[in-house]
């Protein structure tokens, strides 16, 4: 089962009670992506092992438990299921069914202002989330640039942007990440600045 899941969704982190329970898991509004086009379901795992499943027209209250190996037992309308819980990142939770080659993908919408009601909404959420992640990575990172066969740096994107604004360098100079050894990816200062 695990091989199937990890081939489908790589880089999963197993649920860690100490790291995830209070800060990322409990009392968060988790929208179930599977089947969202037919009906939207929002799962809220609460203290005292209460699970609220909210749908458009009603909310049901059921239960959940966790054992010492981080195996969750969840009571649903279809009966009791056991799942292993993983995080893709802080806002994406994966419940891997222990008895079938199936998993549920949930998105934490607690701090997200838009409603997730369709596959398109989920795509927009993911696009915005990863765009922001890339922006944050680029913003904090340093790059070298090459101009007239000479290399300069390293500089942050903000520093490069200021140099371009002051017309000290061209926005079309090639850049390389400090962890790269050459300019073969052909990225320019212009490409970095437009991601900010």
Q: Kindly report the spatial arrangement of strands forming the biggest sheet.
A: 2-3-4-5-6-7-8-9
Averaged pLDDT, please? Answer: 85
C-alpha Rg (nearest Å): 22 Å
Number of strands: 12
Structural class: alpha+beta
Biggest sheet, in brief? 8 strands, antiparallel, barrel
Q: What would you call the shape?
A: elongated
Q: Name the helicity range.
A: 25-40%
Strand content: 35-45%
Amino-to-carboxy terminus distance: 40 Å
Q: So how many helices?
A: 5
Low-confidence stretches: none
SSE succession: HEHEEEEEEEEHEEHEH
Notes on the protein architecture:
The protein is an alpha+beta fold and 196 residues long. Helices cover 28% and strands 35% of the residues. It has helices at residues 2-8, 17-25, 119-140, 157-165, 189-195, and strands at residues 13-14, 30-32, 42-46, 50-54, 59-66, 71-76, 79-89, 92-97, 103-108, 142-147, 150-156, 174-177. An eight-stranded antiparallel beta barrel has the order 2-3-4-5-6-7-8-9. A three-stranded antiparallel beta sheet has the order 11-10-12. A hairpin with a 2-residue loop joins strand 6 (71-76) and strand 7 (79-89). The chain starts with a helix and ends with a helix. The mean pLDDT is 85.
Question: Any chance you could write out the topology, listing elements then pairs?
Answer:
Layout: H1 2-8, E1 13-14, H2 17-25, E2 30-32, E3 42-46, E4 50-54, E5 59-66, E6 71-76, E7 79-89, E8 92-97, E9 103-108, H3 119-140, E10 142-147, E11 150-156, H4 157-165, E12 174-177, H5 189-195
Antiparallel strand pairs: 1-7, 2-3, 2-9, 3-4, 4-5, 5-6, 6-7, 7-8, 8-9, 10-11, 10-12
